[in-house]
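Predict the holo structure. Ligand: nicotinamide-adenine-dinucleotide.
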Amino acid sequence: MKIFSKLEEYDYEQIVFCQDKSSGLKAIIAIHDTTLGPALGGTRIYDYKTDEDAIEDALRLAKGMTYKNAALGLDLGGGKAVIIGDPKKIKNEALFRAFGRFVEGLNGRYITGEDMNMTQQDAAYISCETNYIVGLETGSGNPSPITAYGILKGIQAALNEVYGSDDLKGRTVAIQGLGAVGRCLAELLYEAGAILYVTSRDQAKIDKAVAELEATPVTLNEIYGIECDVFSPCAIGAIINDTTIEKLKCKIVAGSANNQLAECRHGDMIEKRGILYVPDYVVNSGGVINIIDDISGREYNKENAMKNTAKIYDACKKVFDIAKRDGIPTYKAADRLAEERIAAVSKIKTIYNKK
Ligand code: NAD
């Protein structure tokens, strides 16, 4: 892999390789852009097949965070970290503390938090070595329920766009992944009267959703072809790709997974198929909104976090409006919103200020 060409492609600022033999830590911290503020983005633990896959994922996720934070109107840049290895095998206190020391070494250029396969206990170990971590139990806590609430709002905005009504009663939703976000989302949708199809890698979670939420279980491959109103990817990225796009029989794609489009052209393809794609980083931003109090040092207020997260409905509507106004697919409309803000703020930073 030509690392610097890779960084130049989307103007990444920095990539940090972290290694500690005694604890087994192998991690990558990617910082995409800090024009608006420190790079914020969680840490994912994943058993990547190759180091290149891990670098690729860290870079893609970091860029996604830049766009998400910018589109939301936050004073934060974009970064992300990945810890390489099987989350069932590699976890130990020393590993997370070693990682925390690397985060501390960046002196606030990067702020981390929880992401895929990380628990509150893991985050607590990291916080022993650095204050540059948010979403701890002592602060805003687990972001997943708020993220799920934001997805619900985004789904309602999309339903309104497609059907002229936010009502979820009788709407069919196919959920891919029943982890922290997927399960909470399934509960919210069920309470609102939606009919659920579910798949996940964990059979126990599927069984629970079948028993408690009257969900219909489907296989990992079947989920793409379910005839439904909404396909909700809540597991891994790059699931809208050349293979899956033809299978989709939904009207809307809206879910929590980051970087759902394998490549930008898949955003064009999905639009041509007449499917409304709700850009991932706009609809899944509840988790970030939830930790704003932690970053600014205020005491966490759940009511405010919920109120602010509900604004994802309006943000999605804004993206749909830009898409219609400029005749572009929704993924481009969201990018346009973010890029225009970064450019505008970067311009005012040319004015000298002692700070
Ligand atoms: P999680 O690890 O708790 O859950 C992921 C679930 O997906 C697991 O149940 C796993 O079995 C399942 N899964 C993995 N691969 C799958 C596949 N190929 N098909 C079907 N299921 C599969 O993660 P999470 O916190 O729920 O996050 C889910 C996604 O949402 C991730 O992409 C994450 O980056 C993104 N996200 C999460 C938050 C948050 O607040 N947790 C916020 C924003 C974005």
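The pocket of nicotinamide-adenine-dinucleotide is lined by residues 115-117, 143-144, 147, 176-182, 199-202, 205, 220, 234-236, 256-258, 284, 287 (CB under 6 Å). The longest helix spans residues 51-71.
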